[in-house]
Design a protein that fits this description.
This is PAR1 protein. Helix content is 46%, strand content 14%. A two-stranded antiparallel sheet has the order 1-4. Strands 2-3 form a two-stranded antiparallel sheet.
């Protein structure tokens, strides 16, 4: 009886995921700006955030479908947890390879919380790095090795101590 009930629950859960997936079509133009970046439409095309001036001269943001195809991630919106773990911002308009110059950004992108769990963000930066002739896995490996080397220096006492302040003169 218990195994029959367990099987029924698993079957119900699987069917509900299938139906939810069928009904939840992602259309970039229908996404609010705060969900646009790092989303992929059901067609497999990446969503991009664009800005424009409205009639009052203020900047408005809209979500558009780009021509960039992403394999195996159609209909996907990256989670807020991934956005935070990877150190990116949903309000970003455009993207630049200059982010790879920041060791803090690279550390967050290469962290297990981001690199192993956030496919849309990692795929985007993988392609950005490749466009610059850089391998993201190699960049992450170098970042990890540099971090380990720094920890080894700090833990071994091999770090050069900073300047020592001389005692303040006595005023007694």
């Amino acid at each position: 009886m218990a195994s029959s009930m367990k099987f029924s629950f698993v079957l119900f859960f699987a069917c509900s995921l299938f139906v939810q997936g069928m009904l939840a079509e992602v259309i970039c133009e229908n996404l609010p700006p705060n969900l646009c970046s790092f989303a992929i439409a059901s067609t497999g095309k990446r969503c991009v955030l664009e800005n424009h001036q409205n009639a009052r001269g203020e900047t408005d943001f809209t979500c558009k479908t780009s021509e960039v195809m992403v394999e195996r991630l159609s209909g996907y919106i990256e989670s807020d947890q991934c956005v935070a773990a990877c150190g990116v911002h949903r309000e970003s308009v455009g993207i630049s390879s200059d982010v790879f110059l920041s060791s803090e950004f690279t550390a967050r992108l290469c962290s297990p919380a981001c690199y192993q769990n956030c496919p849309s963000i990692v795929e985007l930066f993988f392609n950005l790095a490749a466009g610059e002739g850089v391998s993201l896995p190699t960049l992450c490996q170098n970042q990890k090795e540099n971090h380990r080397a720094m920890l080894a220096i700090l833990n071994s006492g091999g770090a050069t101590p900073g300047p020592v302040a001389s005692p303040a003169p006595s005023s007694f």
